[in-house]
């Protein structure tokens, strides 16, 4: 499909799934299963709204104040979340990824993150999108092609859709025992807490299926209950409507964190579910931060499927 404002459009499909990936940001622009949306889509000829469907590299979520210290050097990233004063969601959001492999049910896109102010490292990034009977599988692989070690993390940014209505109407199942608390104004991480800890009469405990209702969430969760019998210890989150139909997302142990966001600033029309290799502000905390030595690669995978 031809070049549009959101980039070149790559459509793949099989077994009732149809995905369209826009080349700018290697963004999942739409995903349907048997004709119904599984993610909040956007139009090819519009500038992608915020980070909807984008591939997040070389970090997911926020670097607080855009500042961090790595290898004994203080770095300052551009502040791409100016209202809160942070560097948000990496450096690939507006890169135009080139196809290196295409077939009817699979496409592989590639781009290079060049060394730059605040991130003086060079990474070759490949994103594979593949559809089969199990859903849409995405694999992000980054290789350090620079001369020095580089801090790294990744994750996706889809807004899942269970059916009609809004986030308030849907039931979430999330097998996570802990949540990373944040400050209310700037969402700066503070400390992890149990999901069933009291918090103003609300609860972030979705280990048993529960309607989201009016709960507002923009937090990272961990303490995930992996399925020891599943492939590579997979964990799944599910989002369903009143009829039990909906969408699920699965990922493996390389993503011990997941950001959940109820999209309160954009009508609560979808639920962001973002498996992450590290938590917010990992460039400063070092928690689960991947350090890529020169020549090293790191991969992470996740799947979105219809229910």
Task: Please give a structural write-up.
With 307 residues, this protein is mostly beta strands. It is 1% helix and 46% strand. A nine-stranded antiparallel β-sheet has the order 11-12-13-14-28-24-23-18-21, with no helix packed on it. The chain has a six-stranded antiparallel β-sheet with strand order 17-26-25-22-19-20, with no helix packed on it. It has a five-stranded antiparallel β-sheet with strand order 1-2-3-4-5, with no helix packed on it. The longest helix has 4 residues, at 282-285. The mean pLDDT is 95.
In a nutshell, what does this entry contain?
With 307 residues, the chain is an all-beta fold.
Looking at this protein, list some descriptive labels.
single chain; 307 residues; mainly beta; six-stranded antiparallel beta sheet; 1 helix; 1% helix; globular
Give the distance, in angstroms, between the N- and C-terminal Cα atoms: 28 Å
Mean pLDDT over the residues: 95
Main sheet summary? 9 strands, antiparallel
Q: What is the strand tally?
A: 28
Based on helices, strands and strand pairing, what is the structural class?
A: mainly beta
Radius of gyration: 18 Å
Indicate the proportion of strand residues. Answer: over 45%
So what's the overall shape? globular
Largest sheet: spatial strand order: 11-12-13-14-28-24-23-18-21
Order of helices and strands: EEEEEEEEEEEEEEEEEEEEEEEEEEHEE
Number of helices: 1
Walk me through the topology.
Blueprint (H helix, E strand, L loop, with lengths): L2 E2 L2 E8 L2 E6 L4 E7 L2 E2 L17 E2 L5 E2 L3 E4 L2 E4 L10 E2 L9 E6 L2 E8 L9 E10 L2 E10 L5 E3 L2 E2 L2 E2 L10 E3 L2 E7 L6 E6 L15 E2 L6 E7 L10 E6 L5 E6 L5 E5 L9 E6 L5 H4 L4 E3 L4 E10 L1
Antiparallel strand pairs: 1-2, 2-3, 3-4, 4-5, 6-16, 7-10, 8-9, 11-12, 12-13, 13-14, 14-28, 15-27, 17-26, 18-21, 18-23, 19-20, 19-22, 22-25, 23-24, 24-28, 25-26
């Amino acid at each position: 499909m031809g070049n549009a404002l959101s980039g070149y459009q790559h459509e793949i499909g099989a077994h009732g799934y149809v995905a369209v990936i826009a080349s700018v940001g290697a963004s999942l622009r739409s995903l349907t299963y048997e004709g119904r949306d599984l993610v909040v889509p956007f139009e090819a000829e519009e500038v992608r709204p915020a980070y909807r469907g984008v591939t997040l590299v070389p970090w997911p979520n926020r670097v607080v104040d855009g500042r961090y210290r790595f290898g004994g050097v203080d770095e300052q990233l551009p502040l791409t979340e100016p209202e809160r004063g942070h560097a948000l969601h990496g450096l690939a959001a507006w890169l135009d990824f080139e196809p290196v492999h295409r077939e009817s049910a699979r496409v592989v896109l590639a781009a290079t993150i060049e060394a730059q102010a605040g991130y003086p490292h060079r990474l070759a990034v490949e994103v594979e999108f593949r559809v089969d009977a199990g859903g849409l599988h995405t694999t992000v692989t980054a290789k350090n092609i620079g001369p020095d070690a580089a801090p790294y993390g990744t994750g996706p940014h889809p807004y899942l859709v269970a059916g009609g209505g809004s986030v308030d109407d849907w039931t979430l199942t999330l097998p996570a025992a802990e949540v990373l608390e944040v400050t209310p104004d700037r969402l700066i991480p503070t400390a992890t807490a149990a999901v069933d800890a009291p918090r103003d009469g609300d609860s972030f405990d979705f280990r048993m299926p529960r309607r989201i209702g009016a709960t507002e969430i923009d937090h990272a969760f961990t303490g995930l209950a992996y399925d020891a019998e599943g492939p590579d210890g997979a964990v799944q989150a599910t989002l369903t409507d009143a009829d039990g139909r909906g969408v699920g997302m699965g990922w493996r142990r390389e993503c011990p964190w997941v950001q959940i966001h109820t999209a309160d600033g954009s009508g609560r029309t979808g639920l962001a579910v973002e498996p992450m290799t590290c938590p917010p502000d990992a460039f400063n905390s070092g928690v689960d931060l991947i350090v890529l030595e020169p020549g090293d690669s790191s991969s992470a995978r996740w799947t979105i499927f219809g229910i």
